[in-house]
Design goal:
Layout lengths: L4 E9 L5 E10 L4 E5 L6 H8 L7 E6 L2 E2 L4 H7 E4 L11 H11 L4 H14 L15 H11 L7 E5 L7 H18 L2 E6 L2 H7 L2 E6 L2 E6 L1 H6 L4 E7 L2 H8 L6 E6 L2 E6 L2 H14 L4 E7 L3 H9 L8 H16 L1
Helix pairs in contact: 3-4
The structure holds adenosine-5'-triphosphate and magnesium ion.
Length: 331
């Protein structure tokens, strides 16, 4: 199957010389949810803006469904939906009016636009609030509205730039459900960017970790986690002598630590090793007090490939992003 999106050596150097996107290449298959994960300034928004034809590349190119982003920008705009990082809805209009306004940009006949808007508003539970000014919406309501504005032209490909930035955990999971439904019910191809590892883990089929304008690694979240060496099993024993037993495991173990009746070992795949380990202990009449298995998280993958933790961006950075969003709204 031909990929629906093909990106080749896409590069953006802003005036002043900032190399925001540095010759990235990747392919996305139809119906895939593809994540770009990276810290502030990694080049995610710049990449999205070039793919959605809002920004012209310095060099390189990309094709979306056979259309070239440089030469066929109009064709592309018709078939894609975009939910930008900055809030774009007009605060003085109602949710419904915003949808109808955007629908008119796409020349969607009014009766169809009304019908479609109602369906979308209902989907994100905004039908009741649809006649109220957007100014009065909560942050979560705003983001839900932004999402459906991006869906008004029934796009085949949807770009979501930080769809849940600044939302509380509960609203975020609701947004995730909407995004999962879009994929399930319409087979939509979705490209999303995120700071949140959990988000990428929950939604994306494949992910590229980006930093300083470059893709550091691409894979399924499971593959990326598997590229880290193994799972950690922690055994808790009632006595130090019992804990000795596990160290005598004939196949040998990669022991991380052993103290106070607690033994931590690293294995390639706990799902496979654990049953055998358990029966080994059982045969020796040793009872376990506690047992836990820790699978590597995307957090650790990120750390491995960027040399720093995503969490190191403190609340101050998050705040900066939010302030930026406000500033953009006011101008
Ligand atoms: N209009 C611009 N002019 C000059 N430099 C820019 C411009 N927009 C972005 N940059 C710079 O390009 C780099 C990439 O920015 P970009 O917004 O693409 O990153 P991002 O990964 O989306 O970050 P965030 O997570 O904060 O949204 C940064 O160094 C940024 O300062
Ligand atoms: Mg961004």
């Amino acid at each position: 199957m031909e990929p629906i999106i093909k990106v080749e050596n896409l590069t953006k150097i802003y005036k002043g010389g900032v190399r925001a996107v540095d010759s990235i290449s990747f392919e996305i298959n139809e119906g895939e949810v593809y994540g770009l994960l990276g810290p502030n300034g990694a080049g995610k928004t710049t990449t999205i803006n070039m793919l959605t034809t809002r920004l012209s590349p310095t060099s390189g190119n990309a094709m979306i469904s056979g259309h070239d982003i440089i030469r066929h920008s109009l064709d592309i705009r018709k078939m894609i939906g975009v939910v930008p990082q900055d809030l774009t809805a007009d605060e003085d209009l109602s949710g419904m009016e915003n949808l109808l306004m955007v629908a008119s940009f796409y020349d969607i006949p009014r009766s169809i636009a009304i019908e479609r808007s109602k369906r979308l508003l209902e989907m994100v539970d905004l039908l009741e609030a649809s006649m109220r000014q957007v100014r009065q919406y909560s942050g979560g309501m705003r983001k839900r509205l932004e999402l459906i504005i991006g869906l008004i032209n029934e796009p085949r490909v949807l770009f979501l730039d930080e769809p849940t930035l600044g939302l509380d955990v509960q609203t975020r999971t609701t947004m995730w459900d909407y995004i999962k439904d879009l994929r399930k019910n319409y087979g939509m191809t979705i490209i999303l960017t995120s700071h949140y590892l959990e988000e990428i883990d929950a939604l994306a089929d494949r992910v590229s970790i980006v930093d300083h304008g470059k893709i550091l690694i691409t894979g399924t979240p499971t593959e990326l986690k598997a590229s880290l060496k193994g799972d950690i099993i922690s055994f808790g024993f009632r006595s130090a002598s019992d804990s000795q037993a596990v160290l005598e495991y004939p196949k040998g173990l990669d022991v991380i630590s052993s103290a106070d009746g607690m033994v931590k070992v690293r294995v390639e795949n706990a799902d496979e090793s654990l049953p055998e380990l358990m029966s080994f202990l059982f045969q020796r009449g040793i009872k376990l007090h506690t047992l836990s298995v820790q699978k590597p998280s995307l957090d650790e993958v990120f750390l491995q490939y960027t040399g720093r933790s995503l969490r190191e961006e403190g609340p101050a950075d998050r705040m900066k992003v939010m302030m930026n969003m406000r500033r953009v709204r006011r101008t």
